[in-house]
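[Solved] Which block belongs to which protein?

Original post:
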Amino acid sequence: MSSFPQAEVFEVPAEVKKKALVSELSLQFYKLGWLSGTGGSVTLKVHEHNVPRQNQFIVMLPSNVQKDRMSPEDMYVLSSMSPPPTKTYPHNPPKCTDCAPLFLKVYEMCNAGAVIQSHGLDACFVTMINSSSNEFRIRNMEMIKGIQGHGYHDELVVPIIENALSEGKLVESPTKAIRAYPKSTAVLVRRHGVFIWGDSWISAKTQAICYHYLAAAIKFHQLGLPY
């Protein structure tokens, strides 16, 4: 029998785990070009057993900070809106993203578990294939199968809304688009990027990969091929 004392096992709180996960995803998405500088965001809902839904909380990347240098303690927690600690120079003081009201609206309307705001260039370019259209349509592409509720032969339709002077004003238009396109799990913002959500961070990330891939429509358009 071992003479070593039994190690005490400590359960890591769900909030701590999610903060670490958001920090990890931030670096991944930065490398993919979805987050750039201080732009873009990742937000996850924390589900804890035996906690009423109204008391669950959301972990969100702060704004005004470099997205490739996030650490778990940098995160905002949107139950108490408690800010992360301020770091010394040369770090900018963190602030809650202006998109927070929109993220909360997506959680409410779509029963989402995660929301990604991407500034990926392809997502921006695809809104300009037809600068007067309020929809992006594509079909017969393999990666459509990765979008929730869609198969290879389905036509994917993603609403496009106009950009605003500040992200804080991007609430009403996406809300209308979500109601008008209940099958879509994304809203494109012209000359800006895209908001993507899923019932978990895995679903949101998987769909984000597929949506960005489907921006291959840009190349199809350049070559005069149908998409």
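(Second protein starts here: sequence line, then its structure tokens.)
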Amino acid sequence: MVQNHLSLLFDATISGNVEFLIILVRSYLDLIWTLDQKKRSIFNFAIIYRPESVFSLIYELGAVKGIIALYTDNHHNNMLHLAAKIAPPNRLNIISRAALKLQQELLWFKEIEKIVQRSYRKKKNIDENNTTLDTPWELFTKTHQNLHKEGEMWMKDTAKYGMLMAALIATVVFTTAFTLPGGDDQDLVTPILLSGKWFIAFFISVQLHWSPHRHRY
């Protein structure tokens, strides 16, 4: 019977069924301390699978929150190590752009960082052979390396596109600014007003007035 409760507990956590989870925990309070075979609690599962609504329940636990935040699994992964692992595809792909995905992942990491003890930020996990591996931040950089590259490419492409649009706009503005009033003579391909003597005289007088030789001291 207990095993069935555990299965329901972790399934509800992974799927983000917070309503059912609240009912289950209220009926069996000890479930909040329950760990699976890898020594992971429901909050560890919430960090891995990213159902924010489930993880937010930890803020309702008061001082108990600090105790649960001390848990580490069989490989010495604390909560921050688990947050450093990349989100499952069904959660990661909710956002389309790589740079925004990376931002979301970093925000999640920083949120968990607020909960764990400061010393846990420097703790290293181990592998199956008890070999020391990574701190949480080192693990984050490794697991998000491809996403970081994709984000950089997207940012560069976006910047290039922005520069192209700016150049096009500048060209239109430049052309408009130097289009003389009166339109063009389609046969001569010259502004119509340039064929007028008065306009030519005016243009020459302006040039002479603003000539650099005029302003020498």
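Accepted answer:
You had them paired correctly. Confirming on the second one: The beta strands are 184-185, 190-191.
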